Amino acid sequence: xxxxxxxxxxxxxxxxxxxxxxxxxxxxxxxxxxxxxxxxxxxxxxxxxxxxxxxxxxxxxxxxxxxxxxxxxxxxxxxxxxxxxxxxxxxxxxxxxxxxxxxxxxxxxxxxxxxxxxxxxxxxxxxxxxxxxxxxxxxxxxxxxxxxxxxxxxxxxxxxxxxxxxxxxxxxxxxxxxxxxxxxxxxxxxxxxxxxxxxxxxxxxxxxxxxxxxxxxxxxxxxxxxxxxxxxxxxxxxxxxxxxxxxxxxxxxxxxxxxxxxxxxxxxxxxxxxxxxxxxxxxxxxxxxxxxxxxxxxxxxxxxxxxxxxxxxxxxxxxxxxxxxxxxxxxxxxxxxxxxxxxxxxxxxxxxxxxxxxxxxxxxxxxxxxxxx
Length: 373
Known about the structure:
By secondary structure, this protein is an alpha/beta fold. It has helices at about 20-30, 45-50, 65-75, 90-100, 115-125, 140-150, 180-185, 190, 195-210, 305, 320-335, 345-365, and strands at about 5-10, 30-40, 80-85, 105, 130-135, 160-165, 215-225, 235-240, 245-250, 260-270, 270-275, 280-285, 295, 370. InterPro entries: Gfo/Idh/MocA-like_OxRdtase_N (IPR000683), Gfo/Idh/MocA_oxidoreduct (IPR051317), GFO_IDH_MocA-like_dom (IPR055170), NAD(P)-bd_dom_sf (IPR036291).
């Protein structure tokens, strides 16, 4: 009988946001059981977090280094670790567990530099383990539907790709308050990059995932709108593609009044499409010479592969948490060898995200110069 995969978690303890999201996602399809964790660098917080999550005391670790070594030595040790720490720890934690033959599911972005990303990619290749990056929006059914329709040629030749991710929560300097999520995101040593890493990489991955296209060149600008902030809080980029298409990306965490407004538009020679993350059940198709129409999740005209992603009947909304859960479901399938899960983001998506960050940084430093991708 196939058993649940044994899951460990690094980070995500008391007061953390994304750890709870990963835990819900891992449980949603009953593919994982959380059995161990190094939830905080502060022993008292780690202990309280483990107790609240019903983790046995001997598997609630004071450090991720100890956890990697001890779990690898157990007959019932973890199969996979979920990394939900600030960005600067993503790569070193992943390396420690890969060295012990343990698979890795990691929050985005990949790390804080392209150089460390390349080093991790070599280790992933040599280890034989799986590395999964949780770009959850790419697992939403209507995003997969959009990708399938583009790949089928329904839009014709792609002429323009526009992606926009707007938030307003950092319109003030929350990083100098007791806001835990803002504090580490405002620290260059912990985050590595500002808005471009936190949400810009999501926008970038969504655009490349749905279109199936990467640019041949791009230019960008990093802005710091809030005085005194040490990292960027807004990024814009322009892209050129091999087929002559152009693209535009905007990501801002200082867009006052916006919550989590991620939008994608792809314009083709025969039709265009638009997707809005805050209405994740819908994909809008705009045919040339005909009325626009809405494709809904789990609808009769959906692609077969998209319908297979749905957990509830049409009209029973799915969204953010289910996108994460799909990443975990497909991760379980590839770790067990049941499926190749070709759309699951991995180390290549992580490298592309870090390359995007560093290319835009370089372009911005040169006054928005076009640079080869």
